[in-house]
Fold each of these.
Amino acid sequence: MKWIDFLVFLILSVSWLSINAIWGLTGPETLISGWLSDRGILKLTAIIGPVSLLLISISAGLLRNHKLMIVGFMILAYVLGVFLSRYLKETIVISNIFFNRSLLLIPVIPMFIVAFSTKPQMNNLLAIGDWSQKCELRFLGGLDWKRALIVTILFIAIPSFLLFQAGVEFEPFKTGAIWAWASRIIGLSLLNGFIEELLFRGLMMTPLIALLGIRKGIWFQAIYFGFHHFGASPELIAGLPMAVILIFLGVLFGYGTWGTKGLAWAVVLHAMLDIASLSAHLPV
C-alpha cells in the first residue's frame, strides 16, 4: 500500500469511528458504539476524531498536497454534518419519516462549501448524465448504461424484492399493507437514494478519484459506504454480510456515476433496491 493510500485509509477509518461514536451518543447503541462505550472512549473518540481529521487536512495543505487536503476536509465536513443532523434530530422531535430522513441532507451543506471553495471537478453530478456511454463493467458485457440499468433491475433489484418478500412470507401482500404504503415507500426510496448518492458517490467520491485515480477512488468510497452501514448494525453476524453486499453495490453505483457523469443512474438503481427492502420492512 502506498503512503497516500494509507493516509486515505486512515482518514476514512478515523471518520468512521467518529461517526459511530456520534451515533452512540445520540441514539441506540450499535455494535461499534457499544465497543467504544465498553472501553470508556465513546466521547473521546467523538472529539479526537474530527480534531485528527482537521490536523491531517491542514498538514496536507502545508505540504502542498492539495488533493489530499480536499479529501481530508471533505470527510471532516461529512463528520461535522452527521453530528449536526443527529443533534437536530434529537432536538426537533417530529414523527414525519420524510422530515427525519431529510435531515441526512445536512452534511451536504458543509461538504458543498468544501467542494466549491476548492473547486474540484464535480462532473455535473446533479445532472442526469449521459446514459448512452459504454459501460466499463465486464459483467454487464459492454452494454451502454441505459441497457445496463435494465439488466441490473432485472437481475439484481427484482430478485432482491422477491428475496426480501420471501423472508417475510409475502405478508405485506397478504395483508394489503404494501398498497397502503406504496406511495410513501417510493417517495422515501427516491429521497434516500438521492441523499446517499449525493453524499457518497457525488461529493465524497469525486475528490477520492482526483487523488487516487478512478479504480481506487471508487473502491475506497465503496468500502467506506459498506462499513458505514455496518457500523449502524447492532450485531456482527447480521451486519457483516450486508456490509459486503453494500460494498459491491457501492462499486456499481460508483462506476455508474463516473461512467454517466451524473448521479441519476445510481439514484434510480439505489431507489429500486430501497423499494425492495422497504416493501418487506414497511417504514413506521
Amino acid sequence: MAVEKNKGRAAIVTTLRNAGPVLDSFIAYHLAIGFAHIFLFFDDSNDPDLARVAGRAGVTAIPHDSQLREAWKTLPQYGAQGDFLEREVMARQVLNAAHAMELARARGFDWLLHIDADELFYAPGGSAADHFASLENEPVDTVNYPNYEAVPERETIGDFFREVTLFKVPPELNRVKLSPEGLRLLKSVKQLNPDFFHYYGAGKSAVRLAAPGMGPEGVHDFARAGGDFRPARNMHNFILHYAVCGFDALWRKYATLGRFADAWWNKYDIAAAIGTFHLEARDVVGRGNREAALAFYAEWVAITDPVLIEALMAHGFLARFPEPCQILRNT
C-alpha cells in the first residue's frame, strides 16, 4: 500500500555539548535519510557550534539560557527534574525532550526521536521517512529501537560517523548459535568484558506526537504519566552508538563531564546499571594523565587486530555497517 508522502514526518531532539565538526555529519546524515527537522539543545550557551549551525535549514538550535530555563518550569516533568538540573545532564535531557515535543507539535510533525549527538538512526537499505510513514496506521504510541555500540579500530579517528563501520551486535540480535569456542573467544576479549556494552543496551525511542499525555520517561523511553500507552519494539531499524570512537573522543567526553557522581539522580547506581567502564573512564581522565588514559583506551575500547575482528564477526559478536559512511559521502 502506498504511503502518503507528508504522513509520518519525524523530527529528532538532541542535547549536546562540545560536539565539534562531527555535528555537521550528524545533521547531514539525518536530513539525508528523511528526517524532517532536528532540534539541537546546546547545553553550553557559548558552544561555538551553536552559531555555526543556527541558521541551517532543517535545524533549530536552542541555547541553554534563561529563556529555556523558564520554558522548563512550565513542563510537567519539571517537578521531578528541577532539583537535579545543575548536576545531572540527563535531567536537562528529559526537559529538553519534553520541550521539543511541544515545538515539534507546533510545526506539525508526527514523531519525535530522542538520541544523542554521537548516535545515528539506521534504517538498513531504506529511509527514516518511509519507516515513520509506515507507522501512521499502526496502533502504537512509542517505538523503541535496539542499539549497536561502535568498536573503534585505531587510536586516531576524526569524524567517526564517516570513518567507523564496526559495531557490537546486541545479544538479542546475534543470529549465530553460541558455541563453546565462541564463548571462550568472547571471554578472552577485554573490550567485550565484563560487560558486553560499555554503555546502555536498552535502545532509544520515538514518540507519536498526537498521542495525548505522553512525555519522556528518562532518556531512553516515553510514557503516559499515570496511564497505559501502546509501546512497540522495532527490530528492523536501529540506533548506532558511536561511543568514544578515537582517543580524543574519550578524553573530550570525560573532560567535559568532569567528576560526576557514582549514581544517577542520587539513587541509580551506575556500576550496577551499566558496569564500571563509565566510572573508570571518568577516573582515568580525571587524573589528567593522557598516557594512562591512552593505555586505558587501547586495552578496553579499541580492537585493532584484524584476525580477532574477523573471528568475532564470524561468531556474530561484531558486524560491519558501511552504509552510513556511504550516505555521508553522497551528501
Amino acid sequence: MIRLDPQAFSALYGKNIIVYGTGIMAKRYVPYLVQDPSIRLCGITNSRVMAEDEGTFLDTGLPLRSLRKWKELLPDATIFLMGFTASEEIIANCKSAGFTSFQFITVEMVDALGNMEAGIAQVREAEILEHLCLANELHDAHKAAFSEFKSCHRGTTVAVVGTGPTLNYYSQLAGVTHIGVNSSFLKENLSLDYYFIAHKETQWLEKLQDYDFVKFFKVGIINRKAKDQIPEYIIEENGGRRYFSMPLTPFEQIHTNIEYYPVMGYESVVFQAIHFALYTHPKRLLLIGCDCAKNGHFDGEAQNIFEDTVSIPLWIKGYQQVKRFALRHYPDTEIISVNPVGLRGVFRDIYTCSYLETQPKIGQTEPELLNTFDFRI
C-alpha cells in the first residue's frame, strides 16, 4: 500500500474526492492516488462521460460516471481537477452540475508523485538486475554442477534415499546408484554416490568431509538470506557443487533442463534429489526411506511440528507432481516405492521381507516382494 507525502497531499484528506480528467496525468497519477488510504478517491469523470455508469478507469476499479450522477450520489464531494490548467468551461460544467468544492493539482503534488515514480522505477530496475544476475549465476552454477550427469544412468537403476524409518529395513542393492539426503549418509552399511543437503545442519556438515561422494549444496533464491544458509567454506572444503531450488509456490513448475532452471522444491530436499535422479534418466528409480508420514526418522530422531502439520500434505502433492512430470518427460523411467507408507499406491510398490514381518496386515494382501536380481542391471 502506497502512502503519499502528507505535506503535499493533505488538502485531499477528509474529503470525498472525484477526479476530473482521464488524460495523460490521470493515467499516470491516479493509480498511485487510489492506493493511499488517507485519500478517499471515489471515482472519475470528465466532460465526455454522460452515462450513469461507463465502467471503470484503467485497472484502478474506480467507476466512471457523469458529473450529474456523481452529484446525485455524492453531493458534497470535492472535484479534483487533474491538470495544471483548468479551463473556465470545465469549472463552469462542474458548477452547473451543482459542485462547489474544487481542488487543483499543485506543483508540490506533481513533484512528490514524480519522486515516488522515480523511486519505484529504481526499485524495479534493481529487481530486474537482480533477476538477471540470478539467472546467470544459476545457469553457471547448474552447468558446473549437473551438465556432466545428463542421462548418465540411462538403462540402470538409481535409488533416492530418504531418512524415514523404513530405511532400516533396506539392505543396499549391488550395482544400484544411490543418491542420499540429509542424515542418510550416516546409515551403517550404506554407501552413497551422490548427496544433497539444503540447510545448515552442523552435526552433519562436520562429518561430511569424511565421506567420498558427489555433494550438492543448496545455496539460493530464498535460503541465501536465511539464517541456515550453508557457509561457503563448508562447500569449498567438501569440493561441493552449488544448486538452486524453487521457492515454495502454489503452482511450482518442474523443468527438464536443470542447467537453466531451479530444481523442484516442495519443502523437502528429497525432491531435489529426485529431480536430479530423473535428469540422469535411469530405467528404474527406487524411492527408499521416503516414508512421507508422521513416523520420525531411521535414526530415532523425531519430526518437528512443522513437518507434521504443514509439510506432509505438501510432500504428497510434490510426489504427485513428480509422477505427472515423469510420465510426460520420462515415460521410460519406472518409479518404485520401497516399503511405502504415505506413498502407498502412488507409484509401483514393493516390499522387503524384513519390513513385512513388522506389518502383518500388509502381508495378508500378497504384496510384491523386492527381488534383488531385478535391479542389478
Amino acid sequence: DTTAPADTRPADTTAPADTTAPADTTAPADTTAPADTTAPADTTAPADTTAPADTTTPADTTVADTSGPTCVGLPTGHARHAVASFPYNADGSKANVWRVLPLTGDGALDPAIATFTMGRAYWGTVAFSPDGSLGFAAQESGTLGVFALAADGQPTVVAAELDPGVYLDAAVVDGDHLLLVNPNWAASGGGIYRAPYDCAGNVGPAQLLYGSKNAVAVLPRGADQLVASRAAGDATFGHLHLMRDGGTSWAKVAGADLFGNDQASLSALAVTGDGRFALVGDNAGFSDFDNSIGVAALGDDTVTARTPIPLLDPIAFVVSPHGDAVLVVSGYGNAVHVLAYAPSAATPFTDQGEPSYVTGPPSLPSGAVLVGGAHPDLVFVVELSAVRRFRFEGGGVVTDLGRTAATGAGTHNIYGAIGVQP
C-alpha cells in the first residue's frame, strides 16, 4: 500500500460547541499527516519531481468572455480530465500540489499529464464551470483556488489563493455565480455567500445571503436553497433548512432537527434526483449518539424529518442517475454502502450494505463525485493512493470496478480533493 498514516480524513472537531462563544470550531482539522511527527519536516524538499506550473502566468484570455453558464471556452466534445490535489511532500510536510489526469474512453484515469501549484486542499471536491473550462476549489487556508484548463488539459492558474472577502471551506457553482460556505457561527461571519465569476475566471467580491451556524454544504433547489447547518437565517436549531430569496433578503421557510440531539457533526448533504428527499451525514466523533444519516422529506415549503439510518462516518453521498440508489462513503469504516431508494415506501431508504469489492475494501475513502457525460452512472471515490471506481447498474445495484490512477507508495502520492471536468 503506502507509507501513509492510517487516517487520511479530517478529524471531527464538532464536540458540543461552547454556546457562550461563537468561536470557529468547524474547520476540519488536518489529521492526514504521517504518524511520525518527531522529526521536523524538511520543507526544502520539492513537492513533486514534476515541475510545477508557473503560477505567475496570466489567466488564459482565450476563454470566451460571454459571462456565466453561456461561457464556451472549450470546443464541443473536448477531452475530459480529473483534477486532484496531493497535499503532502515526500517527507510528509504539507504540499500545495495539484495534478491533471485524463479521463479515458472506458472511464478510467490515465497518469497525470500536468502538475501545478495552488493552495493546499487535503479533502473535498473541485467545482467546475458548466463548460468545463474553469475549476474552483476551497482550500485549507479558507481561500479559493481558481484555474483554467485548455482543450488538451494543460492548466493555467488564475488565482492560487484568492480571498473573496470571506473565509470558506466549500464552493458550489450556481450558474454565473459561486455559492461559498463559511462554517463559522453567524456572529463570526458564518453563512452562505454569493460571488460572481466571469469567463476568464475572475471572481468578484462575496456578498452575504444569510447567516448560518456551522454550515457544511448548500445546494440550490430551484430558486431556493437547502443548507445543512445547525441554524440558518434565524436562531432556530436544526440540521437542514429551506431558504428562500424574498427579493430584498433571504428567509427561512422550513427546517428540521434530523437527529434528535444537539451533538451531531454535519458532514455531507445530498438531494435525490426527484427532489423528494434529502440526506445529511452525522459523523460526530465525540458524541453520546451513534453516527447516522439524517433523512428529510421535502415539500415545496416543508422539511420533515424521517427516521435516521445508522452508519459509521458518512462523509459523502452520490445519488444514482437511475433514481433507485445512493452510494454512501464511510470514511472510518473503510467502506462504501448502498442505500436502496424507493420514494413511495414507508421507509424510502434501506441500507443494502457494501458491494462486493474487486480487491478488498477501499482504504480510508473520502471524497466522491459522479463522473457524468459519457459515463453518467460512474462514480469516483478517492482512497489513500488511488481512485476507486463504482458503477450504478440500475435496480439498486452498485458494482465495484476497482482502482484506477494508483500512485504508489509515499506520502507525496496521497490524494486529497478531486473533481471531474464536465
